[in-house]
Amino acid sequence: MTKTSLNLPSPIQRWRLLLGEAAQESLGGLSGHAQSADAALEWLYGRDPELAQRAERRGGQEASQLSTPDWVNSIHQLFPQEVIERLERDAVERFGIDEVVTNIEVLERIEPSESLLRAVLHTKHLMNPQVLAAARKLVAEVVRRIMEKLAREVRQSFAGTRDRRRPSRMRIASNFDFKRTVRTNLHRWHPQQQKLFIETPLFISRSKRHTERWDIVLLVDQSGSMVDSVIHAAVMAACLWQLPGMKTHLVAFDTSVVDLSHDVSDPAELLMKVQLGGGTDIARAVGYAQNLIHNPRHSMVVLISDFYEGGSEYELIRRTRQLCEAGVKVLGLAALDSAAKPNYDRGLAQKLVNAGAQIGAMTPGELAAWLAGQVQQ
Q1: What global pTM score does this model have?
Q2: What's the mean pLDDT in 240-257?
Q3: CA distances from residue 279 to 4, 68, 82, 256, 312 in whole angstroms, order as listed
Q4: Residue 123: CB partners within 8 Å, gap ≥ 6?
Q5: Which CATH superfamily is domain 214-376 in?
Q6: Is the confidence at residue 130, as pLDDT, over 90?
Q7: Which run of H or E residues covers position 283?
Q8: Mean predicted confidence (pLDDT) in 285-311
């Protein structure tokens, strides 16, 4: 099953999407995914005066809430790749919407943002060389801002191992000893209010930084819906690459596998090489990761994907089980971004859990803490 097949509208809804709001009285309204798709189509094709004259599409009276970057990002969430390519081509060639992909003046004056970064990654294949050069500067600035924040979180997480035998007076969240704090304050449990009142929070000391070498393999699904996770995985790989004792691999995949490990020191340039879109063969990517593992007990594989497998589920589960049984720590992330709100195949995710993997959704800072926790156990 593909990602897009889960959201296919009914035949009546397809006609309603084709004809626009003018057909709403006859065919009914839309909701959810179909409503979002209609808004994206109206944003583009509502500009066509011929369609308006034939009453095939009629825009509402309310102002559009989509900016050009927002529209680019939304269609990559809503439509399959062949439709996305047609929409982008019509936007540029038919309607002359060039604020992002062809107008260098706009790129040079617009405020860098993660939303604009996503739009650039989606449309860089449409840019001429001069515009692409300006886009690279924008990508570099957004990545610099993300990395500046994340690098601090990574350094803090890996600052030293937690030593549960020694208490600490250093009251910081990363050193909080949850279990001992609960045990020590159990006598303050209030049955009527169902609350535990903490009088004495306890904290753990840190010993010296780890010195053993670890291999970390980040496998990133580069389908269009995972663009936020791709961005943050690239920055995370760059931050980990700077740590002593860490060998970091970054591997992007769709139906093929591309090892980007040689570019992790420059995440902005790395992102410009990523090709978003296409199918998904997670099993092949996990198989590639297996070949990178030399010391299973000191290796981690972080699979960043929505788990909609286009390849063999059987092979994916088998290879995941092999990794876990060998001692590799396998973490599946359905989202790696600032929101950590995933949309993923829960059935396959549960099968991977049964095979020994851990599954979750994390912000980059939470992933750094998880990785550090595994290293420091």
Answers
A1: 0.65
A2: 88
A3: 11, 26, 12, 9, 13
A4: 72, 88, 100, 101
A5: von Willebrand factor, type A domain (3.40.50.410)
A6: no
A7: helix 282-292
A8: 94
